[in-house]
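Table S4 entry, Palmitoyltransferase.
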Amino acid sequence: MRRGWKMALSGGLRFCRRMLAWVPVLVIVLVVLWSYYAYVFEMCVVTVANTVEKVIYLAVYHALFVFFIWTYWKSIFTLPHQPHQKFFMSYGDKERYENEERPEVQKQMLLDIAKKLPVYTRTGNGAVRFCDRCHLIKPDRCHHCSVCSMCVLKMDHHCPWVNNCIGFSNYKFFLQFLAYSVLYCLYIATTVFQYFIKYWVGDLPNTRSKFHVLFLLFVACMFFVSLMILFGYHCWLLSRNKTTLEAFSAPVFLSGPDKNGFNLGFIRNFQQVFGENKKLWLLPIGSSPGDGHSFPMRSMNESQNPLLANEEHWEDNEEDGRGPHHLSFL
């Protein structure tokens, strides 16, 4: 009886936690719905007098709005990809691993299993990356999400504003969402500004629309600044072919840590997320190459293009403040 009560309580708490996780998404949805009403009706229909200007404003606004909502929807409801079944331990291997008490033997067992898999990254002490909760050998760039309670391929981070893990399956959609969000806020701010001034100086009558127009500009500017910072950071990550997790902790390879281990150059880094089909770059349609289990690495390309190694050398020098331009001023 007591056990059943505890299970019911635990299930209730999990349900409440899942519901609370949707609160940030609900906040965003409510703000967007209000912004739609304020811009379309209070700004364009009521405030803007010129018909041509009104039509142009509404046409461009709805084009941005559609892409903004589309990419937000895809970021929320595109499920994160989990590793293939071949990365999971078999029942026999799992039983032997858990019964083994010697760490060095466990480490060797994982090495033997990993030999059959395309994994090249390691833990900080050189061991095979293993998830003791999912009981699997982690593919390169895969991490366990404590919120989603599963391992996610090429995990970037868990985003509360979309209530989803951002990883291989939806990182492209997340970047597009940030880009269209920035454009959405910027467009609202630039088109509303002249009417904000007119209301402020009293050129327009003091009606209900005044509050919506004034507040719309403040909200658009506030979100634009915060989103632009986040979008700029992820553009930098994209240019280096890094995830948020890899930016904080460099991936470790057989040869040791390498913060540029997956950096293939800007064009190829971009294609690793958006693909090679240019027609799909602006659309929230999956086009990332590969299956999320393995990725081209810089070390494998240096033998084909030795300039990559030289490029990394200069990048490290510049980041350490020891580049040629810095030296000329000493």
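Residues 208-240 form the longest helix (33 residues).
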